[in-house]
Amino acid sequence: MATAPAIDLEHLARYSGGDAELEAEVFEMFKQQVEMWMRLLTPEADAQSWASATHSLKGSARSIGAHQLAKACETAELAHPDGATARAIAAQDIRDCTEAAFKFIDTYTYKARIQALRSSSKRENS
Question: What is the CATH superfamily name and number for domain 22-118?
């Protein structure tokens, strides 16, 4: 059974119209949001910080089609009153999903840049 990709490109294309430059910009904003909110995602965080971080991460993930990350964030949102152990597990799940999403984004944007360079080179050589 194949696992779903970390980013649902069909979902993203509904909002980007398939514009590679826009997608790259959206991915960059997503990465910045994730890095900002991940700082608050510690087992020792107060309930408000934990809830805010997990909820915000969930929204950012959903916006680009990172469904696995969004699900991990949703689970973590519900774990906030369950103590440090549940939070630590939830935070690790989010980190794992974030790593997969970032890796997918990096690979996808690299391939898009290479394709754009090849297309540009073909036009110049024609």
Answer: HPT domain (1.20.120.160)
